[in-house]
Amino acid sequence: xxxEPSFLSIAIAKIRGGKIINLAxxxxxxxxxxxxxxxxxxxxxxLNNSDILTIKKFVSNxxxxxxxxxxxxxxxASLMNVKKIYMKLFLIGIILNFIVIMANGGKMPVYFPPDxxxxxxxxxxREYDIIHTGVDENTRLxxxxxxxxxxxxxxxxxxxxxxxxxxxxxIYMFFQREMLSNRSQT
Length: 186
Prior knowledge:
By secondary structure, this protein is mainly α. Helices cover about 55% and strands about 5% of the residues. The longest helix has 28 residues, at about 55-80.
């Protein structure tokens, strides 16, 4: 989700005369909260893949709280920087994703359209993923779930949410704004 808007934005910013060196001077308050939130979710995923039953049970019992805390941290970091246009977009995306995740027991619902020809293994793998779950008749706020399908032949096929689109727009705007700023003198 972060790769495409990052590379596209960097390439366009370079074409427009932007400087990568400007990224070293970005004033970003609370960046450590984003890092901690991503690490928490990543660590949770790693623990969930453990073969040790006690660890799996711990993850199952506490993943909701860890995911909630990680989203609160991301929202907090976004609010610290909300004066920046790209952080407003990022904040909207995080809040939209957080709302649908909390409405569905701490997991993001994912819809696999029948014509996508996704294997049962992929659906089952996603179904037992610690952060995602399949869409079913009990899914709340379906329109905010991962329902926007970008299939092959796109090289990085994926299913996105409306919140993800806002986050991607925020990432794109970040590189445009920061690389094209006048901070660098070289």
